[in-house]
Amino acid sequence: MSAPRPRHVFFLMFSIFLLLNLNYTILRSLRTTLAVVDLGAGAQSIPFFELFGAMPGAVLMTWGIARLMNRYPIHKVFILTMTAFLGFFMVFTFLLYPFLADMQKSGDVGAAAVQVLVMLFYVVAELWKPGLAIVLFWGLINQYLLVDEAKKLYAPLMLGGSLGAIVAGPLIGLCTSESFWMWFPVHAERWTHGLNLMVLFITVIGVIAGFLYYILWRCFDQYSQKYEAGAASDIYKGAISFKNSLLACIENKQLRLLSWIVIADYIAYSLGEVIFLDVLHIYLPNSSDYCAFMGNLSLWGGVLTFILSLFVTPMVLQHCRWVVAALVMPICLLLIN
User: Fold this and answer.
1) CA end-to-end span of the chain, whole Å?
2) I need a labelling partner for 152 at 20 to 30 A (CA). Which of 8, 52, 87, 328 fits?
3) CB 191 within 8 A of CB 5
4) Structural domains present in the chain
5) 3-state class of 74 per DSSP?
6) How far apart are CA 233 and CA 208, in angstroms?
């Protein structure tokens, strides 16, 4: 079989990244609504979830993916990871959530038990993007493409992520709308109806993304076999050690500084998000309305990101130093807060 055309490969990469970010946008709205409005204790619980759930969860997930990648091809690791994510969301939505909702109303389940399960959903939803869209998606690209080739794909694929957020907004609004619930009720309660629909959409989209990922891997594998004597001979195929990767981030000055930048940026974003989500809860106490607003927020955030990526960011990077461009976001956060 002949090697795939570059347009064919790029279309696959663009579609996969779009679908993965579409699902993450839906999951972000769901986990926030569950934690702040529905079963959770409010926005004040989010820092607790992040510190004691998302942070250790990210370390464990990265360690687990690294172990799997040392034993299986990356496409199998992606399918296994995707199956684990989708299986958890299905079990939580259709088995655990009805039980928790009924027991919380009757007061038979302690608040601590409910918070633990809500935190579990929050953490798994939060890990979707770093696990699938960053480690495994970009890992496949960096495994089969040279660095100079991969660098050219970052900007256009980021546009695919923005389009995923744009598409997710109307989809969330449709699932949570009162008119759609009255016309096609999946559940007697509007919020449960929307939750069920969104998880079903996430499952279907995830299966499609997994199928496209497998096709992309096949394309890369066939390409590397045909051109093994050429540029593809430099493709990295060595084992990945989580310990060595962690040591590299600690010992290398540049990587260590970048790690601190990422950590500081994440903390600042999370703290600002808590204030916003708590105020939003006052104005939108209903779970469906709250989730719909989060979808609209993702829609316009995706539109703004798309415009900035096309017109503003290239101009800033062309005329300013990297450090100036990197300071734009922290300064904006400081002025807004």
Assistant:
1) 57
2) 328
3) no
4) 6-300 (1.20.1250)
5) helix
6) 31
- Cβ–Cβ contacts within 10 Å for residue 101, how many? 18
Region for 240 from its dihedrals, namely left if φ exceeds 0, alpha if ψ lies in -120 to 50, beta otherwise: beta
With a CB cutoff of 8 Å and minimum separation 6, the contacts of 215 are 12
How far is C-alpha 228 from the chain's CA centre? Answer: 34
Closest CA to 144 of 209, 216, 77: 216
- Do 52 and 46 contact (CB within 8 A), yes or no? no
Query: What sign results for the dihedral spanned by CA atoms 113, 118, 121, 122?
Result: negative
Output the tens digit of pLDDT for each of the chain's 337 residues. Answer: 344 445 778 889 999 999 999 999 999 999 999 999 888 778 888 888 888 888 889 889 988 998 898 889 999 999 999 999 999 999 999 999 888 877 766 665 556 778 888 899 999 999 999 899 988 998 888 887 776 676 677 777 888 888 999 999 999 999 999 888 888 888 888 999 999 999 999 999 999 999 999 999 988 877 665 544 444 434 444 555 556 666 777 777 777 777 777 777 777 777 777 888 888 888 888 999 999 999 999 999 889 888 877 777 667 666 776 677 667 767 776 776 5
| 13 C-beta neighbours (distance < 10 Å), count | 23
Q: C-alpha angle 264/267/268, rounded to 5°?
A: 85
At 74, which amino acid appears?
I
- What is the Cα 57 distance to its own chain's centre? 14
**CA separation for the pair 295, 123 (Å, rounded):** 19
d(CA 96, CA 79): 24
State which amino acid sits at residue 321.
Answer: R
Residues 6+ apart with CB under 8 A from 286: 37, 191
In b/e form, how buried is each residue of 323-333, taking b as 16+ CB within 10 angstroms? eeeeeeeeeee
